[in-house]
Amino acid sequence: MTAIKQQGAQHHSALWQLAIGVIVTCGLVTSVSSARADATLAEVTECLRANLPETVRIQQVRLKTVDRDGSQRLLTGRIVASRADGRLRANLRIESPPDLRNAAYLSRENRDGRNDIFLYVPAMNRVRRLAGGGQSGALFGTDFSYEDMRQVHDAFSGDQVTLLGKTELADRPAHHLEVLRATEEGGIERMQAWVDQSACVVLQLDRFDGEQVVKRISSPPDSLKQLAGGQWYAEKVLVEDRLGGSSTEMTVEKVELGVDMPERLFNPQSFYLGR
Question: Nearest CA to 18 among 260, 267, 249?
Fold first, then answer.
């Protein structure tokens, strides 16, 4: 296990994105709306958050992790997410490999902007609620932490956010943000984010330990795709553990919006049961 996974609480807190998660996420879905170049901070965060669809289903998500020594591990699964009373909820269910089949993860945003996270692993045959530093642990052995799966899509709700200005990232105009997040251990986590001006997608999120970037979550601009309804999403999200030397690439396929979602998928008592 790498150092950053062993010391997650020290270095980072967890797409739906895909996100939604990144979360939720953790294909990074937004609408066709954009944040203009001279947008205020409120307009940028509103563009990130208000444009999220009411429901999204990702028929397949692939998580390929490459360790420092070059060894690889592939996980596949499905993600569903929805909003209830404006608050995000996301469910990830693992389909392979066999030792993790039917493992599941649930993230529910609560009224104060934080998230309640629940985990089910078939071998344990019980639901475990993750609290505090537990949310920074590695998600099913990948470089995503549990909190990363909803980090970007909550538009940094409850955090102290500063708009540093306009810039470019990968030759695309972007808004540059600094984010300070209070941890449950009483510390402060510092992050910087680059938000694409046209698509309102977070192209890159850096987590810091002092002045050192210890974790980077990014989506290449050529992975941005537009759905028939005008919404944008990134079909690839890369998480890099800058200390441990490992990385995880998430690829999403078959994104559907406006799909009816049974409430049991977002209930801590039943989220892990069959679709």
Answer: 249
pTM for the full predicted model: 0.80
For residue 66, the Cα-to-chain-centroid distance in whole angstroms is: 19
Computed on alpha carbons and rounded to an integer, the radius of gyration of the chain in Å comes to 17
Where do the domains of the chain lie, and which CATH numbers do they carry?
A: 3-262 (2.50.20.10)
Cβ count within 10 A of residue 20 = 35
How far is residue 239's CA from residue 88's CA, in Å, rounded to a whole number?
22
pLDDT in tens, 78-114: 998 888 887 888 899 999 999 999 999 998 888 876 7
Task: Phi first, then psi: give them for residue 171, nearest 5 degrees.
Answer: 65, 20
